[in-house]
Design goal:
The protein is built from ten helices and eleven strands. It is α/β, with parallel strands linked by helices and 321 residues long.
């Protein structure tokens, strides 16, 4: 009996070690089998130069979404301060229209998909009452948190690239959610350069650090933060903005763009199989609440080990990650 019990313990330990290895590999895997949905909100500019820079950033993000990420028109909403629709705008960036945009997207975003939200403008406030200036009443960080509550089965990337945005992180931080802010506190209210560099990097090959043809949120964040630092250093000024990311591991996994197809049919087949397994993992996680812990863990272990095997096979065949 003692011998049998020892064997069982060894088996459990071996399985646990294998699962940990699979989980380590999963950290590096992009969530490539998911659809992406985008909401861009441009707040009040207050001056012509800010209006030009905010709209240029929104146009950069919009172009990246349509041309690089493959986001469909029905999954892309751009709200600006203009009272009439323009070539860029889908409507005015009022609090009511933002709430309606989240409601509209909630009918399209499926479990496992990615929702990308980006705010641009002038920020202010403190804690849950932090905000970005809008036409009419401003929406608070607490209100954005309530609108995002309905997307618990998706991966949400929420970027507040406005000045004084840092207090959004503790209010919005949640499981399966990455929160990026241009500043570390609401007190950093000077004109921010993070917006232009982050928006530009969303469609920039130079930000693709691992050269896999896709841009992870963390790659974009790190590129923008580095470029901002260079500007302050080159001009010999004290840096007055410090960008934050709430979850660097998840930010490394959520990636945008179409995976480049391999010319090797064997590698292409392995990548397609891995993407199907990633989709199964996302689907399984959305069902966790309806399953017993043992059934969920057993199925998750099976899928993660299969993913690890496929990743090793892709690397062995010369397909990178």
């Amino acid at each position: 009996m003692m011998r049998r019990g020892m064997i069982f313990r060894i088996v459990r330990i071996t399985r646990a070690m294998a699962l940990q290895g699979a989980l380590a590999l999963m950290v590096a895997l992009p969530l490539s089998a998911q659809r992406t949905h985008v909401l861009l909100v441009v707040g009040l500019s207050g001056a012509p130069q800010f209006k030009r820079s905010f709209e240029a950033a929104a146009q950069s993000a919009r172009s990246a979404a349509t041309n690089r990420w493959g986001v469909s028109d029905s999954s892309l909403i751009v709200l600006t301060e203009d009272s009439t629709r323009t070539a860029l705008s889908s409507g005015r960036s009022t609090r009511e229209n933002i709430a309606q945009a989240f409601l509209r997207l909630s009918s399209r975003v499926q479990p496992g998909d990615v929702l990308f939200v980006m705010l641009m403008g002038h920020g202010s406030g403190e804690g849950a009452q932090s905000k970005v200036n809008l036409p009419g009443p401003d929406a608070t960080a607490a209100e954005y948190a309530s609108w995002l509550a309905g997307f618990s089965k998706q991966h949400v990337v929420f970027v507040n690239a406005a000045t004084g945005s840092g207090d959004f992180v503790p209010v919005l931080k949640a499981q399966n959610r990455v929160v990026v802010t241009a500043t570390k506190t609401s007190n950093e209210r000077n004109e921010s350069m993070f917006l232009q560099y982050f928006a530009g990097a969303l469609g920039m090959d130079a930000a693709d650090a691992d050269k896999d043809g896709r841009l992870s949120v963390f790659e974009v964040f790190r590129f923008a933060r580095t470029e901002v630092g260079k500007v302050y250093t080159s001009s010999n000024r004290m840096q007055t903005e410090h960008a934050l990311v709430s979850d660097s591991l998840l930010a490394s996994r959520v990636a945008f763009g179409k995976t480049a197809a391999s010319a090797d049919p064997r590698i292409a087949g392995l990548i397609a199989t891995r993407q199907a397994l990633e989709s199964e993992v996302a689907s399984l996680r959305s069902k966790k609440a309806t399953m017993t812990a043992d059934a969920y863990n057993a199925e998750l272990e099976r899928l993660l080990l299969a993913l690890a095997e496929k990743t090793k096979a892709i690397r062995a065949a010369g397909g990178g990650t």
